[in-house]
Amino acid sequence: MRPKKVRELSCDINGERLFRPKCMKDEKIDYVHLSLDEFEAVRMCDQERMKQEAVAKTMNIHRTTVSRILTSAHSKIADALINMKEIRISGGCCTYKNKGEII
After folding, report:
1. pTM for this structure?
2. Residue 31 falls within a domain, yes or no?
């Protein structure tokens, strides 16, 4: 299997982000893990309304990779919303553009 190409992020996320259903405060519930590159692709494509080609150039990856990342992220987010799961955002084969550090 080929090693993953390091993806460049422009959104600086400090630590792990966690979203959980408000009605499930004290209960132990399942979760989905969203990697930082999935989070960044969703942010740029869905919130910033960037085209996949522009996102690919920004993240230094191929457009088809952006498409695969988005499909995975959308599936995980839908699973979390429909099945009342936490969304944990962290990790991945990424580097911040300004810092150059791999996370």
Report:
1. 0.78
2. yes
